[in-house]
Every structure is written in C-alpha cells, then in structure tokens.
Amino acid sequence: MSRRPDPSRRSEQSRQAILAAAADLCVEVGFAATTIEAIAARAGVGKQTIYRWWPSKAAVLLEQMQRVREASADFPDTGDLRADLLAQTTALEGLLATNDGAIWRGLLIAAQSDDVAADGVRALLERAVTDAKQRLAKAQASGELRADADLDMVVEIIYGPLYHAWLLRVRPLPPGYMKEILTLVFDGLKPATGGDAR
Amino acid sequence: MSRRPDPSRRSEQSRQAILAAAADLCVEVGFAATTIEAIAARAGVGKQTIYRWWPSKAAVLLEQMQRVREASADFPDTGDLRADLLAQTTALEGLLATNDGAIWRGLLIAAQSDDVAADGVRALLERAVTDAKQRLAKAQASGELRADADLDMVVEIIYGPLYHAWLLRVRPLPPGYMKEILTLVFDGLKPATGGDAR
C-alpha cells in the first residue's frame, strides 16, 4: 500500500467541502449575498481552487443540484397514478423545504441573468418534465388519466400550484397540501351535482 | 396665469421618465444588470434625483407595478365564472409578455434578497389573491364552483400553471393556453368514463 495521499480523493473532498459551503451560505444569507470569497473561506480552500473547477457561484450550486438529482429516486411507478404522484410531489415538497430547496431557489434566480445557470436549470427541468410525462402517458394508456389531456399542461396543473406557493411565498403550505391539490385537480372544480347534470 | 413652471408637474414628469427608463432597462438588460446610474442616464436626471424619491432600483420598479395595478380593471364579474377567469387570466398572460412582465419578474427576483421588494411584492400578490378569492366565493355561493374547495388552493390551481410556465420558462405558451387549462381544471383529470363510473 502506498502512503502517498490519493490526489483524486483529496480533490473530491475539496469539491464536497466547497459544495457544502455554497449550500450552507445560500441557505444562511441567500443566493445574492453568497460570494466565491465566502464559499472559499467556509470550505477552507483558496478562491483559485474554486475557479479551477467552476466559473461562478451559480455553476457550483448547479453541480450540487445535479448531484441531488442523480441521487434521487426514479419517478415512482406502482401502477397507481394518484399514489405515485402523491409520493413524488410530497418528496419534492420536502426537498423544497431543505437546504437543497434554497439552492434550487438561488439557481432559478441566477437563471434569469446567468447563461450557465439558465442552461443547467433548463436541463434539470426538462428531465423532470420528461420523467413526469412518461409516467402520465402510461396512465393515459391504462385509463387512469383522461386521454385528451395535453401532458405538458397536466404537468403544469400538478406542479404549478406547489411552485406558485413556494416561489412566490404567498403563504406557508398547509399539511396534506399535495393530497388535497391532487383530489381537486383529478375530480375537477365543477360542483359534483353541477356541470353536465344541470 | 403664472409663467413659472409648476414644480409638482415637473416632478411628476421626472418621475415618469425615471419609471419608464427603469422599465426599459429591465426589459433590455434584465433586472440584475439594471443600475441606478443607467436609469439616471436614460431618464436624463441625476442619480440624486432618483435617490430623493426611492431607496433602490427595486423601489422604482415597485412603484411602476403599483401604478400598473392601480390602472388595471377590477376582477371581472359577469356572473359567468369560467368566462371571467378566462378574461382575467388572459389579461394577466398578456401583461406577463409585456415590459411590465419583465419588471414583475425583476421584482420577484429582488423580493428574494431585498426587504422593500419583498414587502411590496407580498402586498401586490395578497391583493390579487384576495380579489380572486372574492370572485370564487361568489361562484361557490351560486353553485358554479364546488363548495368544498379551499379557495387558496383554487387560486393556486388556476394561476400556478401560468406562473410555472412563465417563471420557469420551460416552454413558450401555446395559443389558447388558459382556455384549455381552465377546461382541464374544471372538468378534472380523471377520464370521463373512469373514476366513479368504473
């Protein structure tokens, strides 16, 4: 066995420390006030170490979200669409409330003015939308979801309320939020005795 | 008649020029790159003139959005909920695509790190939500909307898809977007022949 330190292992430790420091700062002071200087100080590395791997703070945070995405479960598929959507959206609601949610918020802000963040956010969102649409298409084929619904719109109807409440911070989400949203969007907003029956 | 210039009129002209310059810059270069210096240069005033009235660029943009809000129509109430929601959301969709939409996007970003922007955005959103809930409550009373639906959730189901698509820029909105969204959320995502009938 060699006693020399493994440079790739040390690199990965530094990368982990930088990612963790960026995440903590984003939670503590917000994306706007997070600086490369502060990330370097918190991680115990020099600024140049960060710039060797990433061009900007947005790029650091993007790698953190990509790692979260890689580690997350596939879209659930038990054969019960409502149960799978509830499981997936409840997991997302939980994630949005963690440090990773603060990072995701920072990236969505950065995406408005930073091309690296915009491309990375777009890729993450497109992959999430594609996964959801695949599950929804299977449910259309099995008759659990109306066949004439546009799947991009179904994604927006299911995830839009959660993002609306979370991004705009209109109110804290009540317990059981997504369960009730799913009931309303699947049953529809028309009165049960109204609509066609009138 | 006095030939002296009316100072209050000149002030209002300067204010208008500053508001217009801030709006144009927000559209052209985005909120992050809009500076008080650039607003002053574009409006043909000194920086101190801006700082006499507003503490920050976010405060300038907030006044512009408050003026847009004051000038906008009341929530429509023709007695037909679906028609009124379509009219109101179509007007909002149109506004989001204009310069005022770019300002609103800038304010939503600023609200994440600037307390003045956060308070102003919260007040504007709360007023919009209150107006929508008043109209929805009337529709519940008249039997056009299911009586057991939580009105905050109904607002999020109707406006969430539009904000999700607009803020996250996942895709350009297709023509007739809100009409189809309203059909889906009122009729529900369950298959017409499925659900209770199975």
TrEMBL record, chains A, B:
Annotated InterPro entries: Homeodomain-like_sf (IPR009057), HTH-type_TetR-like_transc_reg (IPR050109), HTH_TetR (IPR001647), Tet_transcr_reg_TetR-rel_C_sf (IPR036271), TetR_C (IPR011075)
A Pfam family the protein falls into: TetR_C_11
Keyword entries, A-Z: DNA-binding, Transcription, Transcription regulation
Record's protein name: TetR family transcriptional regulator
SUPFAM superfamilies in the cross-refs: Homeodomain-like, Tetracyclin repressor-like, C-terminal domain
Domain HTH tetR-type: 12-72
Source organism, top-level taxon: Bacteria
DNA bind region: 35-54
Residues annotated as signal peptide: none
